[in-house]
Amino acid sequence: MEKVKVGILISGRGSNMKALVEACRDAEFPAQVVMVLSNKPDALGLEFARQNNIKTAVINHRDFSSRQEFDAAMTLELEKAGVEIICLAGFMRLLSPQFVEHWLDRLINIHPSLLPEFKGANAVGDAIKAGAIKSGCTVHYVRAEMDEGPSIIHAEVEVLATDTQETLSAKILKEEHKIYPLALKAVCEKFTTN
Ligand code: GRF
Questions:
Q1: How far is the centre of ligand 1, averaged over its atoms, from the C-alpha of 133 (Å)?
Q2: pTM over 0.90
Q3: Which of 87, 176, 180 is the best mutation target for the ligand 1 pocket, counting ligand atoms within 8 Å of the beta carbon and taking the most?
């Protein structure tokens, strides 16, 4: 089977990246991870990628004077590796409209809320603060506005009165690791039939 070449962008821990890499090990899974790229040289997830013989790249945003130049450098690196679809997995930089346009419908993200609720970097804390009784996670196509874009799949979790940011994050993360591979599979299947 011809597999779709995927690049994963991270900034930190990389547990979603790990879930995607593990899903791709299945011969029947329609994707293969050809690059893990981080904007942070010390991102923990890079170590896992290296140990699993996945090509890694570090492009430090601090080395660039504009977002657009940083994004263009990423595109160059990703295309050199043959990347066709990008998964954002805890990548903590906003992307330029040019980058989003270049990768339109080939760029997906996971967010720890039921979008469009609780956009932004503190989605789990915000859900607790708002007294939400359910929350969850969403995989969506990326658009230029933060946490916008057509939803691909979501999973719900119950928020208990006793939940803290930590316990709720852990419950949501467990679901993230299940739905991100499912979303990637669906996106790859669509990509190859188009
Ligand atoms: C996840 O909660 C994801 O939803 C958000 O950033 C976090 C990344 O965690 N976008 P990890 O690096 O994948 O462990």
A1: 21
A2: yes
A3: 176
